[in-house]
Design a protein that fits this description.
This protein is of the alpha+beta class. The protein is built from 29 helices and 31 strands. It has an eight-stranded mixed β-sheet with strand order 20-19-18-15-14-13-30-31. The protein has a seven-stranded mixed β-sheet with strand order 21-22-23-24-25-26-29. Strands 1-3-5-9-8 form a five-stranded mixed beta barrel. The relative contact order is 0.08. The structure holds zinc ion. The site of zinc ion has 5 residues, from helix 23.
C-alpha cells in the first residue's frame, strides 16, 4: 500500500519541480548581501499562494505549470534566505574585535595539537567585556599558542613573554579563558580556497586565541560535563591509537580513518595521496562513506541470508539496506560527522527510504530527489567541489547501469540481485540463491556457511571494481576542472586503493578499537598501501597540471565526460571526447607583447607578487610561513600558479625574513627550471642545488618588450660592516614599458630609500625612480615610505601587502596619511589609489589598464564574506 502511494505520488513533472527548487536555492547563494528577514517572508507567503492556486487549477490553465515551477524556485530561495539571515544575526559585533573578553564555554570537538600550540572549537556559554555581559556567536574556533606571545596590544616592537602553556583539553570540559577575538577572515585569491565560506558551512562565526600572559587571568577548568560524548570518545580513541601504534605514519592514517582526524598526517603523505588521486579516501569524503556503506550492506545481507528464519522475519535486501545504512551512519558519526559525511548519509537515507517503501522511480528522479534533499538541508553544498564529485559519482552509477541492475541505488550499495519488491514475503527465501537454503550433501560445513555468501560477495566485489573504474573514468574531467590537475596514475591507484582501504584497512582499523592487536594488521596494510602509492607517485608524468578554464568550458567538459560513460550508441558517446579535450587545449589569457601585469597575492602578512609578460613569468617573494606544516607557497601560490598554468622563469626573493621566503621552498620544489635571484646568504638552504645568483644593482633584462632592472642592493652593500639587517638588503626590482612602470621594494627602510633617491637622480635624472605602481615598502611600517621617497616615486597606485589585524599594526595610519597627502603630478590633482590586501584580497594590476585594478574580494562577493571595517 505504501509502495503504491509512493509510486502514485511520483508525477512526471516532479523532477522539474525539484530542479526549479535547486535553481531557487542556487540563486539565493548569488546574493552579495542578505535582505532583512521579513523581506524573505513576503515571497515565501506569495510562493505558497501561487503554488496553491496553480496546483489546484493545473488541469485547466496551461500557465499553471509555469506558476508551479516559479513557486518552487521562489520557495527554495526564500527558505534558504530566512535560514541564512537567522544564522547571520548571531555574527560577531565588530566592536568586540581585538578586545580581551572573559569567556566561559565548553570544548565541543577534538582538539588539534601541533608544535605551535593547540586548536579547538568552543561552544560559548557566556562572555564579558570589562564586567559587562556581551553577545558572542555561539560557536568559535580558538587557538592556544605555546611559547612566546606578544605582551599587551598590537605594536611594531612588542615585548615578548612566555605565557601559560596549553593544557590537555578534552571535549565536554567547561573552561574560563581570556580570549582575543576576531571575525572570520581568510585570504581571497583567484582560484583560491574560500576559507570564509568553509567557516560559514561549519557554523563558525569568529576565531580567537587564548590570552595567557602573566597579566591575564589564568585559564581555569570550571567543570567536566557530559556534553559531546561522541567527541570525547573519539579523542580517547585517538589518544589510544597514537600511543598503541608505534609507526607514526600508520598511527596518523589509522586515526584519520577511525576518528576522522587528519591533523597527524605528514604533508609529504598528503602530497602522495594527492598525486595519486586518493586523498578523498583519507579525508572521509562522501565517496568513502558510500563505499563503506556498500561494503557494510554486502556483509549484512550476506550474513542475513545465512538464516532462513531471519529472512522470513525481514527480507534480506531490506535488512542489508537498514543494517548497512546503520553501520555507515555510525561510522560517519564516529569519524567526525563532517559536512561531506552528513550529506552522504542524507543521500543514502533518501535512496534507502525510497527502496524500502518499494518505490520504483526512474533513476533521474531518484537522483533529483537526493540532490534536492542535500540542497535543502545544506544549500552551500552547491559551492563545494566534494559535493559535486560524490553527486556526479552517484549519477554516473545510475546512468552507466544499462539493465537497471542497481535498484534505485546510490553508488552500488544495494544487493544487485535484489528482487523487484522487497516487501513481498515470497522473496524472503531469496529464490535467486535457492541452493543456499537446501545445500547439497557434498557441500562442506564451511561452504554451507560461506559458500553462496562468498560467491555473492565475489560477484559484488567484481561489480564494485567495475563501478569504481567507471566512476574514476567519468570523474576525471570533473576532478581536473575542480582541482586543476589530472592524476594520470590516479585511475590505477584508485582501482587498487579503494577496495584495499574500504574493505581491508578501514575494518581492521575500526575493529582495533575493540581489540587493539588488530592495529598491527592495520599497520601492515598501511605499509603496503603507502609503498604502492609512493611507487605510483614517482612515475614520470604522474600528475598532469592543467589550467583553470572558464566555467562554461568546465560545464561542457563535465557533460562530455558524462556522455562518454552513459549507455548510448558509441557514435553518440564519442561526441563527448572533443568536449573533454577542449580543456587541456584551453590557454589562459596572457598580457600582449610590451605589456605586463602584477598579481599582488593575498598571503596575509608578507610579500608575494606574480609578474607576467607575454611569454615570461616572475615571482617576487613567496609569502609567509603560517605554521610548521603550512605556508603561503602551498596554500596560495602553488594553486595560483597551477590554475593559471604558469611556469616561472625567475624567482626573486627580496631578503631572508620569514614573511618573504616562508613559501619559497614549496614553490621552488615544483618550479625546478626557475632561476633564483636573491639577497640570501650564499649558504642559505633555499639556494642549494639550483641556479641561484645574488641580486645586484645594475642587473637588467628584457622580456617581451618589458624592461626589468635591479636597483638595490649594490655589491658593496653585502660586504658592509657591521653586516646590514636583512631588510636593508631587500632586492629592489623595477619594470617598465610604454610609459607604465612598477617598483617592488621588499622591506627597505628610510636609509635605503635615501640611497636610492641619490643614486637614481645621479644616473637617470629626475624620473629615475618614478613608477606608476608601488608596492608599499615594509608593509606600510613607520620605518619606511619617507616623504622624499614618495616624492621621487610619485606612485599612482600604492599597494600594501599585510595581514588582517596583524600584530605589528601594519599599515601604520600616519604612513598612509603621507600617501593620501600625495597627488599625482600630471595636470589636475588626482589622489593616489591606495590598496591594501586585507580589504582588497589579491590585487590584479595591468600596465594596459593602470587605473582599473581588480580586487579579488570585490569579485564574487557573497553574504558570508567578511566585510572588513
Ligand atoms: Zn616583510
Amino acid at each position: 500500500m505504501v509502495a503504491s502511494f509512493v509510486n502514485n505520488f511520483r508525477k512526471p513533472s516532479m523532477g522539474w519541480w525539484g530542479a526549479a527548487a535547486v535553481v531557487g536555492a542556487a540563486a539565493q547563494l548569488q546574493q552579495s548581501d542578505l535582505w532583512p528577514r521579513e523581506h524573505y517572508l513576503a515571497p515565501l507567503v506569495a510562493c505558497i499562494a501561487v503554488g496553491w492556486v496553480a496546483g489546484s487549477g493545473r488541469a485547466k490553465h496551461p500557465g499553471a505549470s509555469a506558476g508551479l515551477l516559479l513557486a518552487c524556485a521562489g520557495l527554495a530561495f526564500a527558505l534558504v534566505g530566512v535560514r541564512a539571515s537567522v544564522f547571520d544575526a548571531q555574527r560577531l559585533d565588530p566592536m568586540l574585535e581585538g578586545r580581551d573578553l572573559q569567556v566561559v564555554g565548553v570544548v565541543s570537538d577534538l582538539t588539534q595539537s601541533s608544535a605551535t600550540g593547540l586548536r579547538f572549537r568552543l561552544r560559548v556559554e557566556s562572555a564579558q567585556w570589562e564586567g559587562r555581559a556581551v553577545n558572542l556567536p555561539p560557536r568559535i574556533d580558538v587557538g592556544w599558542y605555546s611559547g612566546l606571545a606578544p605582551r599587551g596590544g598590537a605594536s611594531e616592537r612588542a615585548d615578548w613573554e612566555l605565557q601559560r602553556q596549553p593544557q590537555d583539553l578534552r571535549p565536554g570540559q567547561r573552561w574560563r579563558f581570556t580570549l582575543r577575538i576576531k571575525a572570520p577572515h581568510g585570504s581571497r585569491n583567484p582560484h583560491g580556497f574560500d576559507y570564509e565560506l568553509w567557516l560559514w558551512t561549519q557554523g563558525v562565526q569568529a576565531t580567537a586565541y587564548v590570552r595567557a600572559g602573566a597579566q591575564d587571568a589564568a585559564p581555569t577548568l570550571v567543570a567536566e560535563t557530559w556534553a559531546y560524548p561522541v567527541a570525547a570518545l573519539r579523542q580517547a580513541v585517538r589518544t589510544r591509537i597514537l600511543s598503541r601504534v608505534a609507526d607514526p605514519q600508520a598511527a596518523a592514517l589509522i586515526a584519520a580513518l577511525v576518528v576522522g582526524d587528519q591533523a597527524a598526517l605528514e604533508r609529504s603523505d598528503w602530497d602522495v595521496f594527492r598525486a595519486t588521486g586518493v586523498a578523498h579516501l583519507v579525508s572521509i569524503s562522501g565517496l568513502h562513506i558510500t563505499m563503506f556503506a556498500w561494503g557494510a550492506m554486502a556483509l549484512v545481507g550476506g550474513l542475513w541470508r545465512r538464516s532462513p528464519r531471519l529472512c522470513l522475519w525481514l527480507a534480506a535486501p531490506t535488512a542489508a539496506l537498514v543494517g548497512g545504512f546503520g553501520l555507515a551512519l555510525t561510522y560517519a558519526l564516529f569519524s567526525g560527522w563532517g559536512v561531506p559525511a552528513q550529506r552522504t548519509c542524507l543521500m543514502l537515507a533518501t535512496v534507502a527510504t525510497l527502496r524500502i517503501l518499494g518505490a520504483r522511480w526512474p533513476w533521474p528522479q531518484v537522483w533529483m530527489l537526493t540532490f534536492l534533499a542535500v540542497v535543502l538541508s545544506d544549500p552551500w553544498a552547491l559551492l563545494q567541489a566534494g559535493f559535486w564529485l560524490s553527486f556526479v559519482a552517484v549519477g554516473v552509477l545510475f546512468a552507466s547501469d544499462p539493465g537497471g541492475r542497481i535498484p534505485a541505488a546510490a553508488p552500488g550499495p544495494m544487493p544487485h540481485s535484489a528482487p523487484a519488491s522487497a516487501n513481498d514475503p515470497r522473496d524472503n527465501l531469496d529464490t535467486l540463491e535457492s541452493p543456499s537454503v537446501l545445500p547439497s550433501p557434498e557441500v562442506t560445513a564451511w561452504q554451507r556457511w560461506w559458500g553462496p555468501g562468498a560467491r555473492r560477495v565475489g560477484a559484488e566485489l567484481r561489480s564494485l571494481l567495475g563501478e569504481q573504474w567507471t566512476i574514476t573514468l567519468a570523474l576525471a574531467p570533473l576532478t581536473a576542472l575542480l582541482f586543476g590537475q589530472v592524476s594520470v596514475v590516479g585511475l590505477l591507484a584508485n582501482v587498487l586503493a579503494v577496495p584495499w582501504v574500504t574493505l581491508v584497512l578501514t575494518p581492521l582499523a575500526l575493529l582495533g578499537v575493540l581489540f587493539p592487536p588488530l592495529w598491527g594488521g592495520a599497520t601492515l596494510a598501511v605499509e603496503v598501501l603507502m609503498r604502492v602509492l609512493q611507487t605510483l607517485a614517482t612515475w614520470p608524468g604522474a600528475v598532469w597540471m592543467i589550467g583553470m578554464p572558464p566555467w562554461w568550458l568546465a560545464v561542457l567538459a563535465t557533460l562530455g565526460g558524462l556522455l562518454l560513460v552513459v549507455s548510448l550508441p558509441w557514435n553518440v558517446r564519442l561526441l563527448g571526447l572533443p568536449m573533454v579535450l577542449a580543456v587541456p587545449l584551453w590557454q589562459a589569457p596572457v598580457p600582449a607583447p610590451g605589456e605586463f601585469e602584477l598579481l599582488v597575492a593575498d598571503v596575509g602578512q608578507g610579500n608575494a607578487v606574480l609578474v607576467r609578460t607575454a611569454e615570461h613569468a616572475l615571482l617576487y617573494d613567496a609569502g609567509p610561513r603560517y605554521s610548521l606544516d603550512s605556508d603561503a607557497g602551498h596554500r596560495v601560490l602553488l594553486p595560483l600558479l597551477q590554475a593559471t598554468h604558469t611556469r616561472l622563469d625567475r624567482v626573486v626573493l627580496s631578503h631572508q625574513d620569514a614573511d618573504h621566503v616562508g613559501g619559497a621552498a614549496a614553490v621552488l620544489a615544483t618550479q625546478t627550471e626557475a632561476e633564483l635571484l636573491s639577497s640570501l646568504p650564499l649558504n642559505h638552504p633555499l639556494t642549494v642545488g639550483r641556479d641561484a645568483r645574488r641580486c645586484e644593482a645594475g642587473q637588467a633584462w628584457d622580456w617581451d618588450g618589458v624592461h626589468f632592472e635591479i636597483l638595490h642592493p649594490r655589491p658593496e652593500d653585502y660586504a658592509a660592516l657591521p653586516p646590514p639587517k636583512p631588510n636593508a638588503l631587500s632586492c629592489v626590482l623595477r619594470m617598465s614599458s610604454g610609459g607604465q612602470s612598477a617598483l617592488l621594494v621588499g622591506d627597505i627602510e628610510r636609509a635605503q630609500e635615501a640611497a636610492l633617491i641619490e643614486r637614481r637622480s645621479i644616473t637617470a635624472g629626475q624620473s629615475g625612480l618614478q613608477s606608476t605602481f608601488l608596492l608599499v615598502p615594509h608593509h606600510g611600517s613607520k620605518t619606511s615610505s619617507s616623504a622624499p621617497f614618495l616624492a621621487a616615486v610619485q606612485p599612482e597606485v600604492a599597494v600594501v601587502q599585510a595581514g588582517y589585524r596583524n600584530r605589528y599594526g601594519h599599515p601604520v595610519v600616519e604612513v598612509m596619511d603621507r600617501y593620501r597627502a600625495l597627488s599625482t603630478g600630471n595636470g589636475a590633482a588626482q589622489a593616489v589609489e591606495i590598496i591594501d590586501t586585507p580589504h582588497c584580497g589579491a590585487f590584479l594590476w595591468r600596465s594596459a589598464l593602470p587605473h582599473n585594478g581588480v580586487c579579488t574580494r570585490n569579485e564574487g562577493l557573497r553574504y558570508w564574506h567578511h566585510r572588513v571595517p
